[in-house]
Amino acid sequence: MTISIRPASLDDISAILEIENKTNQMPWTEAQFISSMEVGHYSVVLQEEDNILGFAIYSPIIPESHLLNIAIHPNHQGRGLGDKLLQKIIFQNKTMGVKVISLEVRVSNLPAIALYEKRGFFKDAIRPNYYSGSPKEDALLMSLKI
Known about the structure:
The chain is α+β, with helices and mostly antiparallel strands. It is built from four helices and seven strands; from the N terminus they run βααβββαβαββ.
């Protein structure tokens, strides 16, 4: 099976929403995804054949970029697809002249933190009670100099 990463389009929203709702405790809404695309955030999907298995959204404001959202469908996690997607995002940002990529991640999301560390991200700080819900959860701020 061939894995490819391409720019996302509005036609991909339903597949992206399905992944988001299965992976995020406080998922983005359809309106938030559409708004993100409309304001010019970069959105990519990772697909195998015609099936979208993951997505990522980032906002480059040179010389920095912010990784806003990244997810792989739970049925396809553990296959290295998140790493493949993250490497592509790092490459795209580097090509644009980005020097630092930053992100927030739930402190409880140990698999994501391990992936980011594997790719060279550093733990910068904790943002208390960043994620809503009950209970609220702290965010780990991470960054990568590229």
